[in-house]
Amino acid sequence: MNVVWTDEASQQLEAIFAFLSRSSELYAHRLVNTIVARADELGDFPEMGRNPERYEDPNIRELVVSPYIVVYYIAREHIEILTVLHGSSRR
Predict the structure, then answer these.
(1) pLDDT higher than threshold 60 for residue 91
(2) Number of independent structural domains in the chain
């Protein structure tokens, strides 16, 4: 399956990079690349993430890429990355 990023998720990834690169551009690149790589794995393993009870839809799942959480939706023909949150943020 293809992995598709929503505009919101893409913007959040860019914001994460911008924030982290103020301290270390190298770390920012590594972490953002890791988030993208792990999200790409969902195309082959869509149920890899956890299914928290707070989501009423069983197709909405979370993939932890510490310290971030990638929230995604399993659609029939693709995986849709909905948002990328810091693990300490309120969801």
Answers:
(1) no
(2) 1
